[in-house]
Amino acid sequence: MTQALDSETVKPFKKRRNITLTIGLTLVGILIFAALFAPLLAPFDPNAQEMAVRLMPPSASHWLGTDGFGRDLLSRVIYGARPTLLLVSLILVLTIPVGMLIGISAGYLGGWSERVLMRITDIFLSLPNLVIALALVAMMGPGLMNGALALALTSWPPFARQARAETLALRRSDYLAAARMQGINGLRLMFGHILPLCLPTAVVRAALSLGGIILSAAGLGFLGMGIQPPTAEWGSMVAEGSKVIFDQWWVAAVPGGAILFASLAFNLTGDGLRDRLDTRNAD
């Protein structure tokens, strides 16, 4: 009887987590589709200026209106998905390997190696992400790669701390003891046996952190430190629209809505993945 009640209680939760993951992946798919097929989806050239129709409200010819240079906002929002996703991809490629390497090394080696690596991690965790990113971009110059490097520098510590905690839990497990009995040690044990077990949670953390990364990237663009005009980028578009936000609200609201859409998509995906990969929710 109790087992039947538990089963009935788990079913709504499983259904809800599947819906969350499905919605999140659908929204991410729409975002990727828009970025890949922007030339086919955009009704106008995103950089074409037409001063005769500047600051037009949404209409039949321009569905989301135009900006201060007469450029179609729908086209610019669609094209703006490209640098945003590229920047996010670069940051993940840089942060996940670095964070996993430091965290697994600290948890496996222990001793002074762990203390040194984790104190370095704590130093970077104490730094405010956007402020440090702004300082680095100011020194290196604005641009896609510089922005990615600056944000990646302060985005890896959470991955390192999580990988260290999981490695410490695994270090005395029967699974690793059996691997050692077969003569597996060192790098082969760390990256052949510990790394695969730490990857699922790293994927979940990456998905959950993407929303914040998108906001940070938009913040760099808003302050003029990101991808430079005339390239369509959501943060710089919001900055342009903020000058006329009280009279022509759509100029800032449209790219702001795109940022919200992207953040929501990745947050829902992260929530769904966390529930799906959590062993406590297994059947």
TrEMBL record:
The entry's keywords: Cell inner membrane, Cell membrane, Membrane, Transmembrane, Transmembrane helix, Transport
Main localization (coarse): membrane
Compartments it resides in: Cell inner membrane; Cell membrane
Presence of the UniProt keyword Ribonucleoprotein in the record: no
Membrane topology: Multi-pass membrane protein
Alphabetized Gene3D superfamilies for the sequence: MetI-like
Transmembrane residue ranges: 21-42, 85-109, 130-155, 175-195, 207-228, 248-268
Domain ABC transmembrane type-1: 81-270
Gene Ontology terms for molecular function: dipeptide transmembrane transporter activity
Family that this chain belongs to: Belongs to the binding-protein-dependent transport system permease family.
Annotated protein name in UniProt: Peptide ABC transporter permease
